[in-house]
Amino acid sequence: MKKYRNTFGYPALVALYATYIVVCNLLSSRLVVYDVLGHVVVTAGATVMVPFGAQIVDMINEVYGRRATYMAIAITLVASIVASIMVWHVAEETPALDAMGVSQVYEEAWRYFMVPVPRIVFASYLAFFVAETIDAKVFADLKRYFYTKYREAYRDLKAITMFVLVRSVASDLVNMVADSAIFFPVAFAFTIPWEALPDVLLGGTLVKVLVVVITQPFFIAYRVLIRDVERTID
Questions:
Q1: Smallest Cα–Cα separation from 63: which of 198, 164, 179?
Q2: Domain ranges of the chain
Q3: Which of 113, 127, 140, 183 is the most buried (most CB within 10 A)?
Q4: pLDDT of 201 over the 80 cut
Q5: What pLDDT, on the 0 to 100 scale, is given for residue 200?
Q6: Residues 208/179, Cβ–Cβ less than 8 Å
Q7: What per-residue confidence (pLDDT) applies to 12?
Q8: 37 burial level (CB within 10 Å; 0-12, 13-18, 19+)
Q9: CA 194 from centre of chain
């Protein structure tokens, strides 16, 4: 970023962001069990990865501003839709089971892991778009406030750490809560018992919040390393 701010920096971050989100969408249909601080938590398989995507959004927003972040979100949404269309296209083709001597079990296993359920895909797209857009706005507004009011102190390591934690944690927490509140009810309503849905929603949110807290040192390090890089404030 320090060397290629105006050339490769933005495309590289957007490519990394799109990769994270496309993989998350592929993994979101499977419920998994995590042991969080001694508590069993049932949540979607991509839950742990989502906060890392939020960190990449913050990395884009920190340097390139809100409008560029909105563009990154739009590009990533298109990439996710294209990936789903390609998977569905392959799933509609006739499998070469007989010609290759492969059993039907292989075909069923491939479909189980690769073919997304339309309802879950829609839930992923909706939750992603709403949560990431809110995240981008909250982060950009807080960045503008801190840069305007504390510009002179913003090169100090202590000030950087405090200001980064406030806006990054605040925007990411809003992102994670909104993502869970939208995704889990839309994706799993009528497919799992209603009484289990609150546990899945709260469990997913808890895991995301914990990962958000854990990932903050990485963003602080990023912010310190790029302290001399030009910022866009919009």
A1: 164
A2: 9-225
A3: 183
A4: no
A5: 65
A6: yes
A7: 95
A8: exposed
A9: 26
- Quote the Cα angle for 73-137-46, to 5°: 45
Percent of the chain with pLDDT over 70: 77
Give yes or no for a contact between 73 and 57, defined as CB atoms under 8 angstroms apart: yes
Structure tokens at 213: 């807290």
Q: Are the C-beta atoms of 54 and 172 separated by less than 8 Å?
A: yes
Length of the chain: 234
Q: How far apart are the first and last CA of the chain?
A: 19
Maximum distance among all Cα pairs of the chain, rounded to whole angstroms: 71
Cα separation, 234 vs 224, whole angstroms? 21
